[in-house]
Amino acid sequence: MAPRVLTFTVLMMLCVTHVYSQSSDIQRFRTTYGALTSISCAFSDASGMKGMVKASKGGRYSITAGHMKIVCDGRTVWSSNAADKTVVISSYDASSEDVSLERVFFSILGVYDVRVHSKTKAEIKFILEPRQNGAVIAGVTRATVDVNVSDFAIKSVTVTENGQTTTWALSNVRTNGKIPASAFVYKPAKGWNVVDLR
Prior knowledge:
Layout (H helix, E strand, L loop, with lengths): L2 H31 L4 E8 L4 E7 L3 E6 L2 E6 L2 E6 L4 E6 L9 H11 L1 E7 L3 E7 L10 E9 L5 E8 L2 E12 L17 E4 L2
Parallel strand pairs: 6-12
Antiparallel strand pairs: 1-2, 1-11, 2-3, 3-4, 4-5, 5-6, 7-8, 8-9, 9-10, 10-11
């Protein structure tokens, strides 16, 4: 075989292998995260905030960060602050434009288009973008998700919302596990100031 033909053949094989690998990675991403029923993990952001999140599809979540705790059972949201012993109660709004890890997990990961941005031996960086301009969720025009190659667990999520970028580093990510309903119920402690906005 002539050297030019051989070189062209090798290049074509490498391109096909690369495209197949990306397609396989995207399919695995969609299979793993496109239809989540629940997720729990530890998180931290650039400001130094650290916490835990547990969430189930249907607007149920519990987020703890320092002296702050936010719990939602899919109908009612309790936002508590142990520092000043205050609880604000409000109604859950599924159409809210607020960005949260819960919205990223159960809306954006399953709806936005996915492509592989880069891949190393240790991690894959996925880019998620709305399929159309009118399909933007909570103002998020782009999300970047880094996953481990070894176990496909999410390492970090970065969202761009109305020009602002926020990154959460994640650890101990567990998906589709059983989370008891009691995790999404909150009762204010005696003596706390309760502000009911419902």
